[in-house]
Design a protein that fits this description.
Helix 4 packs parallel to helix 13, helix 12 packs across helix 14 and helix 14 runs parallel beside helix 16. The chain is built from 18 helices and 14 strands. It is an alpha/beta fold. It comes from Sphingomonas rubra. This is Helicase HerA central domain-containing protein. InterPro entries: ATPase_Atu1862_pred, HerA-like, HerA_central, P-loop_NTPase.
Length: 492
C-alpha cells in the first residue's frame, strides 16, 4: 500500500525553534478556532495560514474589515465588495463559488452590523446549500466571528440574528460532510456563541486580557485556570496551539512572516506641522476653493464591477479552478423544456426545498440547467417562481391544453398562492380527495396551518374556491369556474 501523503502548512516556530506545521487534511476534518485580543496578531496568523495553503485548497474568506482583499492581486482571490451588491447577488456568488472552486474574499467593509450579518448569512447558506456534486473541500475563514454568531441579540433585528447564527452553526456543525472547513477567529471568546465555538477541535489562543475570555479559553483547551494564565502574557504574534491538526499537547507558536499586508495597517505617529498658532487659525478659516486631494495611505477604491461580470470572473478564476467548459451546442425548444422540467422535478423531490425561498431555489435551478448543457437558464426569477408553483402541484407540462384554464385562473392570484390553488385544482380535476391542510402548507412553503386556513379564505373571497364541509367533518372544494370538485377528505 502507498503511504498516505499529508499537506503541512508551515505556521512558524515553537519555543525550541522547531517548525510547527498545520496538517491541512486534518484541519479540513476538525476545524479551527483562533482567539486573541486586538493587537495579538490574530489577523497576521490568518494571513500566514491563507498564504501558505493558497493553491493547496479552495479558500473563502468572510472579511468584515476588508483586511484580506490584498490577497487578490498576490494569490488570485476574487474580491467581492459586498456593499456594491444586493443580498440576493451575494448569495448567487456563493453558489457560483462552490461550482467553480474559486478562492474568494467577501469584503463586508462599509456595511453596518445588520447589513454585514444579512450578507454573511446569505453567502454562507449558499455555500452550505450547494448541490452535492459541488461539495469540494474548501477552507471557510470567518474573521470577527462573534459579529455573526453572537451570544446575545445586540442591536440587530431578531430574524437577522437568527439567520446569521444559523448559517454559522451550519458551517461549524454540519459543514464537514459538505467539504466546508470552518476557521473562525474572534477577539472576544465570551461573546461567541458556545455551540459554534465548541465545534472546533483545533485552537490557537493569543493574548487575552479579560477574565471571562480567559475562563472560556481554559475551558476549551481543557487546561486548569492557573495554566491558562500564561495566555495573558503571550507576546504579540505568539499563540498557544492545541488540536489534532497541530499538536496533541499545548505548545507555544511564534507565527512566521507573511508576504502581503492589510489594506489598513496600525496607525503610526508622524511629526505635527511646524506652524504658529495664528497662522494655522487663518489657514483653517480660509475659504476652500480647489483644495488639493490629500495623499492616502491606501489605493483608491477600484471601479464597481457589475454582478454579471463578477459572476463570470468567479466562473473562470485566474489562480485556481477547473478549465473553462467548451460552449454547449444550441438546443431546440423541446430539449430546453425537458431540461427545465427535469430540474424542477429534482428540486421538488428534495424534502428540504419546501421551506427554501424561491430566490434560493432559483440558484439551484440555474446550476442544474447549466449542468444539463444550458449555458443560460431560459427563465428569470418571476417566471421560475410561477413554474415552481406548478411543479409543487405536480404540473410540469405547463403548455398542456388541459391546464390552460386552470393556469389562467391561478395567474390572477399572487405567485406564492399559485401552488396551493393548483394542488387543489389537480385533485379536483382527477376527482381525488381534497388535499389536507398539511399538504397545502408544504406547497405554500409554511409550517403554519393557520396561514393555510387564511389562504383558503382569501382564495374563496376571490370566488375561485367554494368550500363545503359535510356532516362527518370532511372537506371538499369546488372550483366553480372550471366545474371541478374534489372528493371529501379530512382537512387535518
Amino acid at each position: 500500500m502507498g503511504r498516505h501523503m499529508t499537506v503541512s502548512v508551515d505556521m512558524g516556530l515553537d519555543e525550541r525553534g522547531a517548525a510547527v506545521g498545520m496538517d491541512l487534511e486534518e484541519l479540513l476534518a476538525t476545524r479551527l478556532l483562533v482567539q486573541g485580543n486586538s493587537g495579538s496578531g490574530k489577523s497576521h496568523l490568518l494571513r500566514r495560514l491563507l498564504e501558505k495553503s493558497a493553491g493547496q485548497v479552495q479558500q473563502v474568506i468572510v472579511d468584515p474589515e476588508g483586511d484580506f482583499v490584498t490577497l487578490g492581486p498576490a494569490y488570485g482571490h476574487v474580491v467581492i465588495e459586498a456593499a456594491d451588491y444586493s443580498v440576493a447577488e451575494v448569495a448567487r456568488f456563493g453558489t457560483r463559488i462552490r461550482e467553480h472552486r474559486a478562492s474568494v474574499v467577501l469584503s463586508l467593509e462599509g456595511l453596518e452590523a445588520e447589513g454585514q450579518m444579512r450578507c454573511a448569512a446569505a453567502f454562507l447558506m449558499a455555500l452550505f446549500d450547494a448541490p452535492r456534486e459541488h461539495w469540494y473541500p474548501a477552507l471557510v475563514v470567518v474573521d470577527e466571528a462573534q459579529l455573526f454568531a453572537p451570544t446575545t441579540g445586540g442591536e440587530v433585528a431578531e430574524e437577522v440574528r437568527r439567520a446569521s447564527l444559523s448559517a454559522m452553526t451550519n458551517l461549524m456543525c454540519r459543514g464537514r460532510k459538505r467539504g466546508l472547513a470552518g476557521v473562525i477567529a474572534t477577539q472576544r471568546l465570551a461573546k461567541l456563541a458556545k455551540n459554534v465555538a465548541a465545534e472546533a477541535s483545533n485552537f490557537l489562543m493569543g493574548r487575552t486580557f479579560l477574565d471571562i475570555d480567559m475562563a472560556r479559553a481554559a475551558d476549551l483547551l481543557g487546561m486548569e485556570r492557573r495554566q491558562a494564565e500564561a495566555i495573558r502574557d503571550l507576546p504579540r504574534g505568539h499563540f498557544m496551539a492545541l488540536g489534532p491538526a497541530v499538536s496533541r499537547r499545548p505548545i507555544s507558536v511564534r507565527i512566521g512572516a507573511v508576504e502581503t499586508s492589510a489594506r489598513s495597517g496600525s496607525p503610526k505617529l508622524t511629526p505635527l506641522p511646524q506652524a504658529r498658532a495664528f497662522d494655522l487659525a487663518d489657514m483653517l478659516a480660509e475659504p476652500v476653493n480647489d483644495a488639493p486631494l490629500l495623499p492616502m495611505a491606501f489605493e483608491a477604491r477600484p471601479r464597481l464591477v457589475p454582478a454579471d461580470e463578477l459572476a463570470d470572473t468567479i466562473a473562470r478564476p485566474s489562480f485556481s479552478g477547473p478549465a473553462p467548459l467548451a460552449p454547449a451546442p444550441d438546443k431546440d425548444e423541446a430539449e430546453v423544456e425537458t431540461i427545465v422540467a427535469d430540474a424542477l422535478r429534482a428540486i421538488v423531490a428534495d424534502a428540504d426545498a419546501a421551506f427554501r425561498s424561491p430566490s434560493t431555489l432559483f440558484q439551484d435551478f440555474q446550476v442544474r440547467c447549466r449542468m444539463a448543457g444550458l449555458a443560460k437558464p431560459p427563465q428569470d426569477l418571476p417566471a421560475f417562481t410561477r413554474r415552481l408553483s406548478c411543479a409543487r402541484a405536480g404540473i410540469f407540462d405547463v403548455d398542456a391544453e388541459e391546464w390552460a384554464d386552470a393556469l389562467a385562473l391561478a395567474g390572477t392570484l399572487p405567485d406564492d398562492m399559485m401552488g396551493a390553488f393548483l394542488l387543489v385544482a389537480r385533485a379536483a380535476k382527477d376527482a381525488r380527495p381534497c388535499p389536507s391542510d398539511a399538504e397545502l402548507a408544504t406547497t405554500y412553503g409554511t409550517s403554519s396551518l393557520g396561514r393555510v386556513r387564511r389562504l383558503i379564505g382569501y382564495i374563496e373571497s376571490r370566488d375561485l374556491f367554494v368550500t363545503r364541509v359535510d356532516l362527518s367533518g370532511k372537506r371538499s372544494i369546488t372550483i366553480p369556474r372550471l366545474g371541478w370538485t374534489t372528493e371529501p377528505a379530512e382537512a387535518a
